[in-house]
Specification:
By secondary structure, the chain is an alpha+beta fold. The chain is about 25% helix and about 35% strand. The longest helix has 21 residues. The protein is globular.
């Protein structure tokens, strides 16, 4: 991590896209940051609002997961983001399964992991970990379609705070990623989904269940009518009032 290559961009379509474009020429781990994204993406291809005032970054990684799972780096990143926010801004973030960070009931960060799997190696040639943080309130506010769920870490953040957050996130992430440190217990303790009744959609049908656990590979374990299921992906909604 000490020799991590770093690339700063004024603007790009998506730091994840940029990382994938340079993956053929850069064989070492690399951090890409941008002031603004014109085509930021979230999970399932959703648009990620990315104006100036936020932090948009991607880590180009060359993982050695023998079972070829990028879900784990999403979980690691969620813990690292939470730690960095606490350290720099003295806030208490919570994690919404599987890849969102919330403050005061509003989403302030999204995480998107992608990778190119090599069946001959039994793992990934590389993985891209994207992190987008609504650090400051955007000029003009959030778009109408997300204003009820989107929030910002603070009203304004100076350049020093921005850099402190990036540096702390990178340090926390690689501390977990390289050293194999336990992060799942912390991920679970920061979750505001576990123990709650949730609503989820499976095969086009809306279901209700209780979230009871999260596996090491990021699957949400739910209990419904006495039966236990594991959800690999999807959106969940808390059915009961909770303090976030």
């Amino acid at each position: 991590m000490s020799d991590l290559k770093k690339i700063f961009l004024e603007e790009t379509d998506s730091t994840n896209n940029y990382a994938k474009r340079i993956s053929g020429e850069i064989k070492d781990d690399c951090l890409i940051t941008a002031k603004k994204q014109t085509a930021g993406r979230g999970r399932t291809g959703r648009r990620f609002f990315s104006p100036e005032g936020g932090i948009y970054m991607s880590l180009l990684l060359h993982p050695c997961f023998p079972d070829g799972k990028t879900e784990r780096i999403t979980l690691m990143a969620a813990v690292a983001v939470s730690r960095a926010l606490e350290a720099v801004f003295a806030v208490k973030p919570k994690i919404k399964w599987v890849n969102d960070i919330f403050l005061g009931g509003k989403k302030v960060c999204g995480i998107l992991s992608e990778g190119v799997y090599n069946p001959e190696k039994g793992g990934f040639d590389y993985a891209v970990l994207g992190v987008g943080v609504n650090l400051s309130l955007p000029e003009g506010g959030f778009p109408e379609e997300i204003k009820k769920i989107a929030g910002a870490v603070c009203e304004t953040a100076d350049l020093k705070q921005r850099q402190m957050f990036i540096d702390r996130f990178v340090s926390e992430f690689f501390g977990i990623y390289e050293n194999g440190a336990d992060y799942m217990s912390e991920y679970k303790s920061r979750s505001f989904v576990l123990g709650k009744q949730i609503e989820y959609i499976k095969d086009g049908v809306k279901n209700k269940a209780v979230a009871v656990d999260i596996t090491d590979d990021g699957e949400l374990v739910v209990k419904e009518n006495g039966k236990v299921y594991s959800l690999r992906s999807g959106e969940v909604k808390i059915c009961v009032d909770s303090i976030i």
